TrEMBL record:
Domain Xylose isomerase-like TIM barrel residue range list: 14-141
Record-given protein name: Sugar phosphate isomerase
InterPro entries given in the database record: IolE/XylAMocC-like (IPR050312), Xyl_isomerase-like_sf (IPR036237), Xyl_isomerase-like_TIM-brl (IPR013022)
PANTHER family membership: HYDROXYPYRUVATE ISOMERASE, INOSOSE DEHYDRATASE
Domain of life: Bacteria
MF GO annotations: isomerase activity
Cited Gene3D superfamilies: Divalent-metal-dependent TIM barrel enzymes
UniProt entry keywords in alphabetical sequence: Isomerase
Isomerase recorded as keyword: yes
Organism (species): Lentzea cavernae
Length: 235
């Protein structure tokens, strides 16, 4: 959800200028499902494809929608396809069965296409809490998790979530207690991100740390956030 107003080429130029190496291309604007020409333009930027960010809602979306998503991920050679675990939070979803079965179906078909299904870690889905996410990972073999902080999250719980989930990707941004409407410069949550990044690197497995929710959707703010992120990673 970063720079929907920019073209694929402009995003590639900006990310490269900032010294970033990877991108998650979104299926809503930049690389729609089935648009292989857009996928090739994305590859032409030279950025590593961290994932294909779909808006497939397991248990809600039509399963027929999955095929063009996976075909586009294959065109991108994306190692992960990000999906969403339904449309209701764990406390509002008494029957997890449809989401679980849809995810199992997605994992099976993704494996056949040479990619993996990754879960967005997000409110209003079955990954809205750590406990529910862990349960879902147990219920669906082969699915993996993303991680992102909640608004104003404390450091202890953030590190605990990352240590427990061992996410393949972290969406990196800083929010105040007001959440999405309370975006901050990334550097204002150095207290959170330094220990989280240390935890993400602890086992030596390569993971993606992807900038998102830039203040004012501003390229200049993005440059500042990228500088902060790379500085923390290199320390």
């Amino acid at each position: 959800m970063t720079f929907r107003q920019l073209t694929v080429e402009e995003i590639g130029e900006l990310a490269t200028e900032c010294g970033l190496q990877a991108v998650e291309w979104g299926g809503d604007v930049h690389v729609p499902p089935g648009d292989f020409a857009a996928a090739r333009r994305a590859l032409d930027t030279g950025l590593k494809v961290a994932a294909y960010g779909s808006y497939y809602r397991a248990g809600v979306s039509d399963r027929a929608d999955l095929a063009p998503i996976l075909e586009t991920a294959a065109e991108l050679d994306a190692p992960f396809v990000r999906v969403w675990a339904g449309t209701a939070g764990s406390q509002e979803c008494p029957d997890r069965g449809p989401v679980v079965e849809a995810l199992r179906h997605a994992v099976e078909h993704a494996e056949a296409m040479g990619t993996k299904i990754a879960l967005e870690y997000h409110r209003n889905t079955l990954t809205d809490t750590l406990d529910s996410t862990v349960q879902l990972l147990d219920e669906v073999d082969g699915v993996v998790s993303y991680w992102q902080p909640s608004g104003g999250q404390d450091v202890f719980s953030a590190v605990h979530e990352v240590r427990t989930l061992e996410p393949v990707t972290a969406h990196v941004f800083s929010w105040g207690p007001g959440g999405f409407q309370d975006r901050l410069p990334l550097a204002e949550r150095r207290d959170l991100w330094k220990p989280v990044l240390t935890e993400l690197a602890r086992d030596g497995i390569e993971r993606n740390a992807l900038l998102e929710f830039v203040l004012d959707d501003s390229p200049e703010r993005f440059r500042e956030d990228a500088k902060a992120l790379l500085g923390w990673i290199r320390q």
